[in-house]
Amino acid sequence: MEDLKDIWRGALKVIEQTMARTVFVTWFQNTAPLRYEGxxxxxxxxxxxxxxxxxxxxxxRIMDILKTQLTDLQQVTFxxxxxxxxxxxxxxxxxxxxxxxKMRRVAGGQEVSFxxxxxxxxxxxxxxxxxxxxxxxxxxPYAASQAVSTSPGGIYNPxxxxxxxxxxxxxxxxxxxxxxxxxxxxxxxxxxxSENFVNEVVEAIxxxxxxxxxxxxxxxxxxxxxxxxxxxxxxxxxxxxFHTFNDLYAAGKQIIISSDRGPKELQNLDDRxxxxxxxxxxxxxxxxxxxxxxAILQNKCMQEGVIIDPDVxxxxxxxxxxxxxxxxxxxxxxxxxxxLEKIQPTVEIALEKIRQIHKAVDANEVRRYTxxxxxGVPVGALGAGAQRQxxxxxxxxxxxxxxxxxxxxxxxxxxxxLVGDDRRKEILVPRQMCMxxxxxxxDEAYEKIGADFGGKNHTTVLHxxxxxxxxxxxxxxxxxDLAAIREELGLA
Length: 492
Ligand code: ADP
Ligand code: MG
Prior knowledge:
Layout: H1 2-17, H2 21-28, E1 32-37, E2 40-45, H3 48-67, E3 75-80, H4 101-104, E4 112-113, E5 119-120, H5 139-150, E6 159-162, H6 169-183, E7 189-193, H7 194-206, H8 210-218, E8 222-226, H9 235-250, E9 254-259, H10 271-277, E10 281-284, H11 290-304, H12 310-319, H13 324-341, H14 347-357, H15 363-369, H16 383-389, E11 391-393, E12 396-398, H17 400-411, H18 415-419, H19 425-442, H20 446-452, H21 458-474, H22 476-488
Parallel strand pairs: 2-3, 6-9, 6-10, 7-8, 8-9
Antiparallel strand pairs: 1-2, 4-5, 11-12
Helix pairs in contact: 1-3, 2-11, 5-6, 7-9, 11-12, 11-13, 12-14, 13-14, 17-19, 19-21, 20-21
The chain binds adenosine-5'-diphosphate and magnesium ion.
């Protein structure tokens, strides 16, 4: 066992070199080598999300690394072992949470000055592509940004990212710019907000420096314009941007743009520009799902070098859904309160902060949740919300309620039994099957599912999903049951 631990420790050291520390810690903390049998190296992961991410993103790399140690290695598999999330599990490798100074180092930070008073605000080093956590919803914008950073002026040109405020557009734009500087140190990158672009144009016109202005932008290898929606009613600036855009595009230079809405929705935008934007890659940046919100918070804690009760983090991740900026804001105020008042934040304090900063949770709701959050899960919290969402395929609208009803009917038990606490096998297995289905088919967060099953902890749901997943590999009956229920739900 100790041997395996050494091997895994060695592998982690190598993996760590290949990514930002925060990303490394986020995915590899609380992992353990479980066993090595028949050429299969089994790595234990603390939760499904880490398992899925690591398997998909780093599986091949880990295989290569381990192969150098284990010559007869055939495969590496990842298995969820929820016990690893406990602090005193001896099997896992401790990763020390060091606040990463490296992260704060300015990557490029170059101020582009052209000697004639024309300057551009450029990149801030704190935004790294590496520290953006794409989650399920933002894989595409993240992958596109990565591709652009390796081959600027390549197939994703222009890259147009749009989405609501606070979802990470500026982070992606700046992070891409910083990464381009790293990959191509000789390139000149200009990051500018559309407001500043407008100001520059106005200033240049006033100072009769249009020629210099044009020359300056012609030298740029990658032009990043943030929040293009502000171009709005400035036809002269738009015209100027249109020419700049065309020049750069024709010269094969990379252009990256962000906006709060898609090109088609941008009113007051010149049609020629609109259609130019559409020539490359247009991707929406979406709000992250629960697990990603939690990972973002954990990552942030790591960066700040603070340790916060996981229940508090789950609570924040659960309630603050719309904006990552708000998510960070709430966390910041919790940390501030922790440091100023020297108290450990509780779920109650977190709810208070959520209410202050994130107005979406009204006072009544907070009162309802307070005191009813064993393990950070609000009892009966989002039943209605989850049902409102539903998932429509082939004319069916499926929601948690429908899945529950169908499962209960199939196993011939009552819905009360399904959401209750009876642990007899004939009740427990249908309950777990139902949780599994809701997770798989409706993509609901563990917290939400737990809440809808009479206020169970999210780890209970996690455990249920893992158990059914394993069962489906050996138990023919379970496979048949699942197929029948899926058919009943119009999924098969
Ligand atoms: P936008 O430009 O879309 O309004 P920002 O890029 O300013 O949003 O993001 C707001 C804050 O949230 C920033 O501090 C950013 O670093 C952080 N953030 C947003 N999305 C993510 C993510 N997926 N992973 C890590 N941090 C994120
Ligand atoms: Mg922004």
